[in-house]
Fold this sequence. Notes:
3 helices
Amino acid sequence: DGSLSREAMIYKLYWAVWHRNLGKLAMDVLGPEAEILEAAPYGLSRLQSLFLFTRSDTIYGGTNQIQRNIIAERALGMPKEPRVRG
């Protein structure tokens, strides 16, 4: 039926947060060099690319807040969040 299991929904959220933290760790490992581009234009090291890519992980599959709402509504059966009409 195309619906995701509870585990898959939670895994997506967990993975996005974990991967983002990995990107932060990569920048910590590089230290001040994390802000220096190696080559022009826009040459990035592997760790710099990892950091930038991990920013999108929490967005392109649905923001983490949206993912939490999906888990609450579909996996836990909680009521839908009230919608504000504009």
